[in-house]
Design goal:
9 helices; Rossmann fold; 10-stranded mixed beta sheet; alpha/beta
């Protein structure tokens, strides 16, 4: 009886170990990567990585892999990004965002890190996530235990977004931490076309534009872009801050999914380099009657007087 009991116990223990091993193997197989190098890190001088951060839920970070080059005197300006369709993942924009990070930026995008080949299917993102992103970069820059300690330029923050993400950005435009705004394939709806908006998107009134206190650029996809009318109407209403509207005739989808973000990343980087890094060579893309953008194939630009006076 004792032998039989011993064998039974041994068999039970072995079975439990086997079940545990199978369970563990499934868990390991189900675990998704928390970081990924995109397009060999981008074309910039600081090869980037896309990653999750445990200290910031439901956001994706794009940042140089090697942070040793950055310090208080040479800190990373910030791009806060909201996604199209209010997706809670930057799966449509990760090449574009990764490219920007490779030129010496930290990008904090709304939503969960996209896995290779996967599209996001889940609840919509919120306007509050952009505020969380700005809070987070400030906290990380001040935290001596953070790898980002003293390496983030929290006085140079651009808040930006595509389509619904652009509406989220305009909803948050009054935040005093914002140095510049970048509205991509987006613009506020007016009373006449508000009914065409997708349910769940933020719908600030046109009067919200008066709360903008920073410079602003619209990057649109030309007349075929469903947001063209809204974006251009916004631009023509903005007369109290430096503003410009740029168009590249590719429609609403932009060039985000093209290698390294395509043409949109060229213009976005020039704007960020000028507005957040004070790069006067980048300013030539936008300033002057014969600015570089006006000579770039396919692009058009309109700007107000305040933009030309901007240093």
């Amino acid at each position: 009886m004792k032998v039989k009991s011993f064998l039974s116990a041994a068999f039970a223990a072995t079975a439990l170990m086997a079940v545990g091993a199978v369970s563990m193997s499934f868990t390991m197989m189900d675990e998704k990567p928390t970081s990924r190098v995109v397009e060999e890190g981008g074309t910039g001088p600081y090869k980037a990585v896309m990653k999750e951060e445990p200290t910031l839920e439901a956001h994706t970070i794009f940042v140089p892999q090697d942070l040793s080059a950055f310090n208080e005197k040479k800190a990373l300006p910030v791009l806060v990004w909201g996604n199209g369709a209010c997706n809670n993942s930057p799966f449509e924009h990760y090449k574009f965002l990764n490219e920007i990070a490779s030129h010496g930026y930290i990008v904090v995008a709304t939503g969960f890190m996209p896995q290779e080949g996967e599209r996001y299917h889940g609840p919509m993102s919120t306007t509050e996530q952009q505020i969380e992103a700005m809070d987070w970069v400030e906290q990380q820059n001040a935290d001596k235990n953070s790898p980002y300690y003293g390496k983030i330029d929290v006085k140079n923050i651009c808040v930006a977004g595509m389509s619904c993400g652009g509406l989220q950005t305009l909803f948050n435009c009054a935040d005093k931490r914002i140095k510049t705004l970048m509205i991509c394939n987006s613009g506020l709806f007016n009373q006449e076309n508000a009914g065409s908006a997708v349910g769940g998107m933020p719908m600030p009134p046109k009067s919200k534009l008066k709360e903008i206190h920073s410079s602003i650029i619209y990057i649109l996809g030309g007349e075929k872009d469903i947001a063209y009318g809204n974006g251009m109407d916004d631009f023509h209403r903005i007369d109290h801050v430096p503003a410009c509207a740029t168009n590249f005739p590719v429609g609403h989808g932009g060039t985000y999914a093209q290698p390294h973000g395509g043409e949109f990343s060229v213009v976005a980087l020039a704007w960020l380099n000028w507005q957040l890094k004070g790069d006067q060579q980048a300013a030539k893309m936008f300033k002057g009657a014969d600015c570089e953008l006006s000579k770039r194939e396919g692009w058009t630009i309109e700007k107000n007087d305040k933009l030309e006076k901007l240093k």
